[in-house]
Amino acid sequence: MKKMMKAIAKKFAHMGSNAKRVLSNRSGEGFVDTAVKILMAVVIGALVLGGLYLLFEGTILPTLTQRIKEMFNYKG
């Protein structure tokens, strides 16, 4: 029983030192870095979607509608 109690005390001491080490660690990613990354992802995504919209609106859709009209306007 004493062995088990010592093992548990040792485990708790190890967990406490690990928690202290993790909480005192100053390296890592902060809130500002994460916010900047999210903002960059949103802006880049909006640019990509805007470019695709312009591509579809100006190039693909007019030729597609023209082809559909030609396909249904068949006079044989």
Overall tally of domains: 1
Estimate percent helicity.
over 70%
How large, in whole angstroms, is the Cα Rg? 31 Å
Oligomer: single chain
Derived structural class: mainly alpha
Number of strands: 0
* Separation of the first and last Cα atoms: 97 Å
As a percent range, the share of strand residues is under 5%
**Low-confidence spans: pLDDT under 50, at least 5 residues?**
none
Instruction: List the secondary-structure elements in sequence, H or E.
Output: HH
Quickly count the helices: 2
Largest sheet: none
Shape: elongated
Tell me, rounded to a whole number, the average pLDDT: 85
Throw out a few tags for this protein.
single chain; elongated; mainly alpha; 76 residues; 2 helices; DUF6133
Describe this structure in words.
There is one protein chain. With 76 residues, the protein is mainly alpha-helical. It has 2 helices and no strands. The protein has helices at residues 2-24, 31-72. It is elongated and about 100 Å long. The model has no long low-confidence stretch (mean pLDDT 85).
Q: Topology of this protein?
A:
Blueprint: H1 2-24, H2 31-72
Transmembrane segments: 35-56
Pfam family, one: DUF6133
Keywords: Membrane, Transmembrane, Transmembrane helix
